[in-house]
Amino acid sequence: xxxxxxxxVFRTVDLTKTYxxxxxxxxxxxxxxxxxxxxxxxxxxxxxxSGKSTLLNILGGLDTPTSGKVLYLDTDLTASDDxxxxxYRRDHVGFVFQFYNLIPSLTAKENIELITEIAVSPLDSMxxxxxxxxxxxxxxxxxxxxxxxxxxxxxxxAIAKNPKVLLCDEPTxxxxxxxxxxxxxxxxRINRELGTTTAVITxxxxxxxxxxxxxxxxxxxxxxxxxxxxxxTARDLQW
Amino acid sequence: xxxxxxxxxxxxxxxRGQAAAIGLVITAGVATFVMSMCAYRSLEATRQxxxxxxxxxxxxxxxxxxxxxxxxxxxxxxxxxxxDTRLVYDVLLDVPEMSExxxxxxxxxxxxxxxxxxxxYIARGRMLDPLRTGEVVVSEVFADAHxxxxxxxxxxxxxxxxxxxxxxxxxxxxxxxxxxxxxxILPDDKRFGIFWVSENDLEAAFDMAGAFNSVSxxxxxxxxxxxxxxVLDRLLIPYGSVGGHTRDEQISHQYLSDELxxxxxxxxxxxxxxLGVAAFLLNIAISRIITQQREQIAxxxxxxxxxxxxxxxxxxxxxxxxxxxxxLGIGIGFLLGDAMVGAYDAFYKFPSLEFRPDxxxxxxxxxxxxxxxxxxxxxxxxxxxxxxxAEAMRPEPPPSxxxxxxxxxxxxxxxxxxxxxxxxxxxxxxxxxxxxxxGISMAVAVMIVGNFSLDAMxxxxxxxxRLAQRQDLTVTFVEPATESVMYEVQNLDGVLxxxxxxxxPTRIRFxxxxxxxxxMGVEPDASLFRLLDADEKTVRVPDFGIMLNTKLAEILGVxxxxxxxxxxxxxxxxxxxIEVAALVEEYSGVNAYMxxxxxxxxxxxxxxxxxxxxxxxxxxxxxxxxELQRRPGVGSVSIKDAAMKSFEKTVAENIMVxxxxxxxxxxxxxxxxxxNTARISLSERSRDLATMRVVGFTNGEVSIVLLGEIxxxxxxxxxxxxxxxxxxxxxMTAGLDTDNYRIPLVIERGTFVMAAFVVIAATxxxxxxxxxxxxxxxxxxxxxxxx
Lengths: 239, 787
Ligand SMILES: Nc1ncnc2c1ncn2[C@@H]1O[C@H](COP(=O)(O)OP(=O)(O)OP(=O)(O)O)[C@@H](O)[C@H]1O
Ligand SMILES: [Mg+2]
Description:
CATH class of chain A: Alpha Beta
Largest sheet of chain A: 6 strands, mixed
Helix content of chain A: 25-40%
Largest interface: A-B, 37 and 28 residues
CATH topology of chain A: Rossmann fold
CATH superfamily of chain A: P-loop containing nucleotide triphosphate hydrolases
Strand order of the largest sheet of chain B: 3-4-9-6-8-7
Helix content of chain B: 40-55%
Number of domains of chain A: 1
Bound molecules: adenosine-5'-triphosphate, magnesium ion
Oligomer: heterodimer
Strand order of the largest sheet of chain A: 6-7-8-3-9-10
CATH architecture of chain A: 3-Layer(aba) Sandwich
Structural class of chain A: alpha/beta
Number of helices of chain A: 6
Strand content of chain A: 25-35%
Distance between the termini of chain B: 28 Å
């Protein structure tokens, strides 16, 4: 793909994030410069505490940096107020969390509709479930689903709003290998079929083989960016 | 339905036990509020329209005999819109089936067939024909008490002569909405009745043609009553007026006003307590839910639900609970209000006393509960709104526990791990723990407040009728009786002991305050009619000086040693300056006492008596009574036992009804607080508890951790509740302190025990319900998922 036709979805400039913990300052991000291209599948790798979640949260408008800039298309997220960030999340971002964060009092279908109700151009909730292969579990409550199934519902929820970007923080962290693969397949399929720009955080370096690009974080900084010309499917990953 | 609202409904269903407990507390508060406000409005509006339609007077005065020639001058008093003059006499009735005495107050009806003021409403039968002799219209309560109907005959002893009266009508009057005989505390339907008779009959019987002895004035709107009373007094004092008074000193009006004031008081303190508790309960319940749903909130925010959406979501949850509670409370309030008005109907006699819903109070109830709920949960909901989503994504750090002070003071290992857990749970959140204790103690306090009035009444009865007044019969004479009459009375067969008294109408002044008071001259070494202090000790009647009861002293603002001015309103009307020598305790009326001998000297009269107190052989009471009634000089005879019984019956009936409500409401508070606290503990600790079960603790041991806290709260709440209850009872006695009666702050030990018992019972029930859930803990489920 020639570079010129590619749109930059995210661009960060000298992004830092410092947490003040009493006397101690925790510098979670120390000058991150990064671009994400439309439609690409990026994997974020890094040791625990290296700042992956912090970066993803800032990209998703859940958190704000201490200094530096985040551009989403032409919008400066760092200049947005809380209401604007809310709108941004509502209209553009889909999240998948490590612990699923489903609403236990709503069924799988209702959990998805909870989000599509406030989205601009959502998919049908049943179609979204179809994509993750859980159509027949639509009326089950989270407590009636296994961890992997819950995570797939969470993915269906994230994609049902038809987001521009899909941000996943350790989506397989709580899952066994097999279930992890099923979940990753679902994510990859959305990336492929809907062209959703996707960033996935993982501890598992082998997952990186699925990505277009692998960004490694270390100690709050980008340690390396690796292009991966030979993407493999989740099923072919070596765990 | 939006999915967020569906979540709301499901959360609510999940929460139903707690929601119901909280809703019921709100219901209880709103019900009491709406009930009192509706009863207030019904009573107030009915009173007003009765007063207006039947021309209830503003100013009243009685004289001995005033010629009709004065009437034009009465009409000229500035501000007076209407004048009514009449004859009023209290006479004894001869009711065959009654051994106790009954007094009738005869009121004249002019030839026109209706009074100009204080008009008579005919409930049954007809108005008497003023031109016929011997017809009478009888007040309804009295007629009902005796089963009189139009057509019956009744015999009265009028000016010493027995007269046959034929009842033609049964009536009501704005002046006697409640009929209380002067000098008694409560109405006695059987022994005091109002009889309207023709003016001609009364003039003939009492030789009062061309004269009157009672005046009522109605003022044009906006006129100053106090100055009118002064002008009236100046006109009438030459004719034996004992001083006029306004509605404020009119007994029926006073009783109604006291009742209205009580209702207003109840409409304030009851919602204050109940809604305060409800706010607290909502707060702990919502805080808990928000903590539990921390990650759900984070997800909602991550997907673009705004802070406003989140805030509204939780406020809606609160508002649904409060709205349901309020609506139910309004319904119950209407029902109770209707019942209360029904109860009033038996007590206060109006042409028609109907329940009127007070829509304003309904609006206020909604406003009040909404505000309380929002204020109560504001901080919790705010924390949800402000929760940074990125942070909520991270699991909450484990709560920080520390060994508490108690543990450090005790030798190590002296406490079991369960007890340690209980202590640490309590000390970790001292504010929440204290609020729970305060909440439960409110239930104790409500019980005490609800029951103390009965204790106080019992004490009053004991004090007044067993300790202070030990006579069996009280006789009053129409004219001051001479020594020979007294001698006769005192030596009737069956009279064991007797004392005489002299009573005169006066106005006592101190500085710029004054009060119309009867001063009673009593025998110094009395053993029947005794004066007591608050410690129930006899107050010796001093040789010189005057004794006031504490209420009078308070009204006048005098202390022992002050000099008061006593204007005698009888005969030669001397004005005396007397030192206040002692104060006595009495729970009804405002009275003053002097040494009888000194009173005679001050009045420059011989040894006469206005009445006598008699101790009578128990078997002879009826014969003595009958004998006394036959004597022309005897004005009234009252039997203490009969008065006491009727008093106790009326009061007890009223109090019992109130009491059952209060027990229910106190139970509602106790259950509300205990159930919520226990339920929240269970939810907070279910993981810990399940873990304990998994590693081998028994259900019993696990329950200790859960219920130990509740037990500790309840134990701490009981003494606190006693204190709060005592303080509230004190406030209530201050609020109910009227000239007619005062309520002593007396709370029996039994009431304290009962309050503790009800709350312990409510605690046990709620604890038991929650405890059953310990056995149902999902050991695997709880451990599998993250909290
Ligand atoms: N709210 C916070 N307050 C204080 N420190 C924080 C906060 N959030 C993150 N940190 C710190 O910032 C650093 C980066 O955290 P971050 O969660 O981004 O790491 P991560 O790479 O996602 O780690 P992991 O793989 O364990 O999830 C860590 O040292 C963490 O302790
Ligand atoms: Mg992380």
